């Protein structure tokens, strides 16, 4: 059985590793800023992510394209978790891959052909996908902390407004210096207004900068179900 390389599973059309990075970073930033834990993202998240990707990678995606891509990223997250649990599997840090007996792979591929994406390589953005889709079903064995926080965008400047050449009616969100989101009107265009802050029990967001934080973890093989 010939198993394609990982890129053939992951990237079609306009999508690339850089686009995935921008989308995932934006979702993590918005979740942290708004203090929410949902993994079903509202329309204004998608509109904001569309502008973020456009500014970072110069590629434009529609709301529906982003929704489909989030579903794809969710599939990657849960498939890689299943690969980590293959019978006899172990993590090879030099290869950056999960090594498992051939019969374990054969059984997995019969059930889920998409698992072939991880036959040669790891999930390249595993820790950040865990931030996006939640740590509610994983823990780190032998450690008290589930995640280790690290800064994102250390080398990135403040998000810039580059929509001057875009068509009227496209919505954008500004990230202010205090880390809040606001609508802005320029050249007759009213930009999308996110919902007002609400109290969902999570308390006020403690982030005061658009340089949000993300989640990291130890090697994937340390992540297990409770």
UniProtKB/TrEMBL annotation:
Region listing for Disordered, in residue ranges: 184-226
Alphabetized InterPro entries for the sequence: LIMYB, Myb/SANT-like_dom
Annotated PANTHER family: L10-INTERACTING MYB DOMAIN-CONTAINING PROTEIN-LIKE (PTHR47584:SF14), PTHR47584
Organism placement in taxonomy: Eukaryota, Viridiplantae, Streptophyta, Embryophyta, Tracheophyta
Pfam families: Myb_DNA-bind_3 (PF12776)
Compositional bias segments (type: Polar residues): 211-226
Domain of life (superkingdom): Eukaryota
Domain Myb/SANT-like: 14-107
Protein name according to UniProt: Myb/SANT-like domain-containing protein
